[in-house]
Amino acid sequence: MMLENRNNNSALSAGGKGTVCIDTQRVLDSCRDRDCFENTRVYLTASGEEILQNTANIRTRSVRLLWAYVGVDDVPFNCGFYRITVRYYVQLELEGCVGGRTQSFRGISIFEKDVVLYGGEGRVTTFSSSPENSACNIADVDTRSSNAPVAIVETVEPLVLGTRVDCECACPCDGCPAPIPEIPDAIATDLDGPLVNNPTGPKIFVSFGIFSIIRIVRPTQILVQATDYSVPEKECVCGTNDENPCALFRTIAFPVQQFRGDTCPSSEPAQIARNGCGCGKS
């Protein structure tokens, strides 16, 4: 009988409890870091360069992390270890004073870091079924995958630690200026034009502080203790009261903390390390 071929080692009991096998991502290694990227070049468009040419009084209003490239490469002669490269693309909202008026403009800054984490060994290729594929017709749908390690980066918005304008108008070396790093089209389209690289004009440099958590995972199958799905016992409560619209408002606690002005968890400012060149520092 077909039932005899069933794997009973991962079946729930009659009470809906037992050990089941799940397919998930296993975290093999992770680290946290606080990095300080000092004097990072800010690349501007033509409109931003025009404002910069007419003022040296520049400040950063806000920053937004647009995207991060995460690359994973084998470490030679260290089986199971991988170098993880994270390249951040940050958009800055800047402003300068020109002719007694404040003018805003945007720029892009790029900085990256490398860490080494253990990601395990072994490479297999996996194929899965797909409704688009059949024995007589192989569609363009690629069902191939592998258990290669995958790096995941979690971070918060960068902190601006300082903004300065380098008013050196002459290029001090041959081959200047350095070329603009390659920027993905999806990021470049968010600006008001293409980036320019002025070889003789002033340049903006910003120092950033950024907190991050990096982990490396692999697909795996593990046995876990599980409980079958159960119907919630709590009934849903309507969020409005048509008969008395103020009834719900009266049930909300008075926000005393908002009026005290001490809603922050700590009044001590975070200490930003200046030498964030590796994971594991606190």
Provide a descriptive summary of the structure in words:
The protein is mainly β. The chain has helices at 46-53, 185-188, 247-250, 256-260, and strands at 17-45, 58-74, 81-98, 101-118, 125-127, 144-146, 150-155, 159-166, 195-196, 203-227. It has a domain at 25-131 and 141-227. It is built from four helices and ten strands; from the N terminus they run E-H-E-E-E-E-E-E-E-H-E-E-H-H. The N and C termini lie far apart (59 Å).
Notable features of this structure?
two-stranded antiparallel ribbon; single chain; extended; 282 residues; mainly beta; 10 strands; 8-stranded antiparallel beta sheet; 4 helices
What's the rounded overall pLDDT mean?
79
The biggest beta sheet is recorded as:
8 strands, antiparallel
Structural class of the helix and strand makeup?
Answer: mainly beta
Beta-strand residue percentage: over 45%
Task: Give the SSE order as H and E letters.
Answer: EHEEEEEEEHEEHH
As a whole number of angstroms, the C-alpha radius of gyration is 27 Å
Number of helices: 4
Secondary-structure blueprint:
Layout: E1 17-45, H1 46-53, E2 58-74, E3 81-98, E4 101-118, E5 125-127, E6 144-146, E7 150-155, E8 159-166, H2 185-188, E9 195-196, E10 203-227, H3 247-250, H4 256-260
In short:
7% of the residues lie in helices and 46% in strands.
